[in-house]
Amino acid sequence: MVADRAIAPYGPEDAMLKLALFFAVVALIAGALGFTGIAGASAGIAKIIFFIFLVLVALAILGIVLGINLFT
């Protein structure tokens, strides 16, 4: 339980958004330095993680509306 809170102290959505932002920054830096292959791969990973984040947020909102805790 404690290890789970250390990884994502505010919930799984927060960790996913941080990962998406990390890969977006990596893509920007790699693109600026001319590493287009790494930039493209990082941007693709950031997109995938961001869409997973959106799905988790939608599930959390649905759970709040229905009064169900979906993440336990």
UniProtKB/TrEMBL annotation:
Transmembrane segments: 20-41, 48-71
One Pfam family of this chain: DUF1328
UniProt KW keywords: Cell membrane, Membrane, Transmembrane, Transmembrane helix
GO cellular component assignments: plasma membrane
Protein family: Belongs to the UPF0391 family.
Designated name of the protein: UPF0391 membrane protein I596_398
Organism: Dokdonella koreensis DS-123
